[in-house]
Amino acid sequence: MRIAVLTGAGISAESGLDTFRATDGLWERHRIEDVATPQAFARDPALVHAFYNARRARAAAAQPNPAHHALVDLARRHDLTLITQNVDDLHERASQPDVIHMHGRLSRALCADCGHRWNAPAVMSADDACPRCTAHAARPGIVWFGEMPYHMERIWDALERADLFAAIGTSGNVYPAAGFAQHAGRAGAECIELNLEDSANARDFDRRIQGPASVTVPEWVASLSG
């Protein structure tokens, strides 16, 4: 069976990482507009780097949870395309063989001038030079608001080929990911949502399973394995 899975902040939250959207409009005590846009980086690169340095440290200290490990088992048993909105490496540290990071990764750096990418150090600063063009324009390799997510052609293709699409721990508020269930469903896939509560696009799913990902995902994977 061909399965496409999208994971969001809810799966990482159970490993202790803060979710992207909070009810008070703040993200780890910062306005999103101040730390997650190209304009914010141009205005105050030191603040943006400090924010992502802290996130990088917290992600490095976190550990994969049972939901991450269950998806590794799913990949062993089925033709799995795993897409994540998360920028941590918890899927990889659970030994997931192939992960599509549509919003980039904390472990990567990007030159805002020439587009060169390299492995990010634990701590980045506004004084860091690009190893290729030497410009002092090193930024986190993260997709910010107003930027195009990565690997979209591969993602659309996987959604169109899938027999089953599952969204795990996603809000249903951020596009294009919020449109994945509709796209997969139009192509003939069964669509299932695993979440603490209904997402903003819950109507796009054929089935919904509510509960913590560390419980629901292993149970769901076990049910697919017979």
List the helices and strands and how they pair.
Layout: E1 2-7, H1 9-13, E2 26-27, E3 30-31, H2 32-35, H3 38-43, H4 45-61, H5 66-77, E4 79-84, H6 90-93, E5 99-101, E6 104-111, E7 117-119, E8 138-142, H7 152-161, E9 164-168, H8 180-186, E10 190-195, E11 207-210, H9 213-224
Parallel strand pairs: 1-4, 1-9, 4-5, 9-10, 10-11
Antiparallel strand pairs: 2-3, 6-7, 6-8
Helix pairs in contact: 5-9, 7-8
Radius of gyration: 18 Å
Named at the architecture level, the CATH assignment of the largest domain is 3-Layer(aba) Sandwich
Distance between the termini: 13 Å
Can you say what the CATH homologous superfamily of the largest domain is?
A: TPP-binding domain
In the residues, how many domains can be counted? 2
Under the CATH scheme, which class of the largest domain?
Answer: Alpha Beta
Largest sheet features:
6 strands, parallel
The averaged pLDDT comes out at 94
Order of helices and strands: EHEEHHHHEHEEEEHEHEEH
The shape is: elongated
Number of strands: 11
Low-confidence stretches: 22-26
Q: Classify the fold: give the CATH topology of the largest domain.
A: Rossmann fold
- Give helix % range: 25-40%
SS field, number of helical segments: 9
Structural class: alpha/beta
Strand order of the largest sheet: 5-4-1-9-10-11
Strand proportion, as a percent range, falls in: 15-25%
